[in-house]
Amino acid sequence: MDVHPDLEPIAFLLGRWEGAGVIGYPTMESANFGQEIVFGHNGKPFLTYQSRTWLLDAEGNKVRPLSTETGFWRIQPERQIEVCLAHPTGIVEIYVGEVVFHKIELRTDVVARTTTAKDYNAGHRLYGLVNGSLMYAYDMAAMGHPLQSHASAELKRVGDFDE
C-alpha cells in the first residue's frame, strides 16, 4: 500500500523501532528502560502509533512493563503536525508541533484526565532522525512539578511497517 502523499514529511518514522533510554523524575528514581515504537499507515493521511516500554535491569534484561501509549500522527499544511495519544492510565493528550527536516517538536495543546488518573498537566516531545537512529527527549509537568526532563532514548529501526 502506498503512503499517502501528505505524509511525506513524516514518512521517515514508518517502521518498527527498538532501543533503550533513561527515565527519571523528582517522584521516581532514575532507571534504564527499553522501548518499542511502531509507526504504521493504512493509506490515509495519518500514521498509526504504538509505544510500549519496560524497566531494564543493570544487564539490560526486561524486569517489568512500564508505560504504553497509542495514537495517531496527522500532518497539516506547512509542515505542522497534530498528535493524539491515549494512555491506559486515564490520560489523553493532543500535541501540536512542527516538522523541520527530520526533526519533530511537539507540545501539549490539550490534556484530559479521568478522575483516577495521576496528576499530569503538560508534555513536550522532541524527535529526530540522527545517523539512522530515532532519538527523542520527553519533558513533562506532573505531580505538582513544572515541565522538566522525564525520558530520553535512542531507537534503531528493526523492521519495516507490515501492512
TrEMBL record:
Gene3D superfamilies: 2.40.128.20
Annotated GO MF terms: heme binding; metal ion binding; peroxynitrite isomerase activity
Keywords: Heme, Iron, Isomerase, Metal-binding
Domain THAP4-like heme-binding residues, every copy: 6-157
Xref: PANTHER family: PEROXYNITRITE ISOMERASE THAP4, THAP4 PROTEIN
Known function: Heme-binding protein able to scavenge peroxynitrite and to protect free L-tyrosine against peroxynitrite-mediated nitration, by acting as a peroxynitrite isomerase that converts peroxynitrite to nitrate. Therefore, this protein likely plays a role in peroxynitrite sensing and in the detoxification of reactive nitrogen and oxygen species (RNS and ROS, respectively). Is able to bind nitric oxide (NO) in vitro, but may act as a sensor of peroxynitrite levels in vivo.
Protein's name according to its UniProt entry: Peroxynitrite isomerase
Organism from which the protein derives: Microbispora catharanthi
